[in-house]
Amino acid sequence: MGDCESTIPELEGEENLIAATRHIVKALGSKKNLTDSARKILAELGTQLSSMAVENETKGDGVSEIEDRLNAVEEKLLSWEEDQSMIWDSGPEEASEYLNAADEARKLTERLESLCLNKDDDEYKLLRRAHNCLQKAMERLEEEFRHLLVENRQPLEPEHVSFRSSEEDALDEGSIISFGDESVEDSLQRDSVSRASEEYILDLVHPDVIPDLRCIANLMFNSNYDQECYQAYTSVRKDALDECLFILEMEKLSIEDVLRMEWNSLNSKIKRWVRTMKIFVRVYLASEKCLSNQIFGELGPACVVCFVEASKASMLQLLNFGEAMSIGPHQPEKLSRILDMYEVLADLLPDMDTLYSDEAGSPVRIEFHEVLRRLGDSVRATFLEFKNAIASNASTNPFAGGGTHHLTRYVMNYVKILTDYREILNLLLKDHDEDDPSSLSPDMSPSREEENKSGISPMARHFRSIASVLESNLDEKSKLYKDHALQHFFLMNNIHYMAQKVKGSELRHIFGDEWTRKCNWKFQQHAMNYERASWSSILSLLKDEGIQNPGSNSISKTLLKERLRSFYLAFEETYKTQTTWLIPDLQLREDLRISTSLKVIQAYRTFVGRHASHISDKHIKYSADDLENFLLDLFEGSPKSLQNCHRR
């Protein structure tokens, strides 16, 4: 056997020397005053001496003894090669015997490899047989490993995959987003991986087979068949996670598919994605990592690599959808949905950093951070686009009836919904405050000094800017009316709506009391201007100027009758016109009717009463009560006429 050949006396001499040295090392190790460094050196020396003793023991064994053991292993392994059934399906005893036989093949291979054999040696033929035997055993164990993983997969828990019906995706006017009742998905939004590990970890594989899987994995890794074991595991678990996404109804979509999708369909898919992300990361990925730890926990880095490779494709599939949304058109209707996506990723960031903390997981971790950043950029761009869309919303015709414009409702409901994202928006808009303070009208926005004093948030500043842009747009729309009274009426309605929307919601904490007071003052001014433009000229007919006889202070009955007739005609025309005008807010409608009625009825009663002696009943077309009742018909958006109406 060449240079590596040893005689029996030589082996015995080496054995005696090794034994003596081990005895000395053991004696030294028993001393109590040794330093940690010395103890470490002695421990390493002891390990080396043990290895040398095993090697010499192997060399001392007879070839026939090794061959007998190899024959026994081959016989056991061969018996299962001829059997088509799975070993682990035959019971624990058979499984244990096969594992022992495979482990024996490993040990024999290692012992033969420890000898310096030449290809011409008889022992070399034994080594080749041992290698072949070990390879067959590993191939069979890989098959059994895969079989155990597949056949013992646990069904997904129904409560983790339930979704509301598509009917719940419908939006009402005042709501852009709506979540259902508290559920597992909702509670997961507040839990991290650490809490999820306590409450939501699932047994993805039946617990009874975990020890068997761990034994097979350890043996395959110890036999240098780690790649085969790793590939079998990742292949099966990758399919399992794909199935999980399928059950969660997350189909594979390319970026092009997402960009081509209609909004209604995309809106529904975003909602599902948000829920899926929470469930997938905090339940399934956390459970997947737990499974990987259970099987490969004793094998060091292999545990991390198996988890990452098994989960990477599914995770990147989900992130791909997020990336598609971040690069798509920055349409305002998408903002709340993109904020939902950003919010869930920001919430899951600590979980992802924990799950993929090692170097093997860095590609997934980096991509997650990148998608989160892009969604943040998309939020800012969409927010700006929303403001631009308000400014550019042009009208060619006046809004019928002078009521609350659709744009006003949309914008105020929009910003109301955005209050749910206060923390995120303040974060994302922090470094993107308005560069041009002149974009805010001075009467609707606080001064810089007021802002600094009150500590106004970035979100508040942007919301006030949006309100200012909306007000400017409404002012332009009001100019489409030829009637000055209707211009003020239109602005009164819309600014009142803005004020009420702020006062009746969380917006009041963002806009602040000062903004609300200015807004209230503004719509009240428009109400007063409406009354002046509508009724001043009519009420001037109820004054005494111009009805005296020429050259005296006496009242001319003819002029008095003409003045009354002119008043009735003007009132009827105003009635006919302003019954078509609309004040949607009931309280504002009532307030303006009362204010108008007080002025008109008081002036009418005073005028008629003062000249009662000069006017006969036949010239009084309407009583004060008649006029008061007529005024109750105003501002309902329902056209009426008094032309055929007789005195009541």
TrEMBL record:
Pfam families: Exo70_C, Exo70_N. SUPFAM superfamilies: Cullin repeat-like. Residues 124-151 form a coiled coil. GO terms for molecular function: phosphatidylinositol-4,5-bisphosphate binding. Residues 271-633 form the Exocyst complex subunit Exo70 C-terminal domain. InterPro entries: Cullin_repeat-like_dom_sf, Exo70, Exo70_C. GO terms for biological process: exocytosis; protein transport. Keywords: Coiled coil, Exocytosis, Protein transport, Transport. GO terms for cellular component: exocyst. Residues 434-457 are annotated as: Disordered. Belongs to the EXO70 family. PANTHER family: EXOCYST COMPLEX PROTEIN EXO70, EXOCYST SUBUNIT EXO70 FAMILY PROTEIN. Component of the exocyst complex. This is Exocyst subunit Exo70 family protein. It comes from Fagus sylvatica.
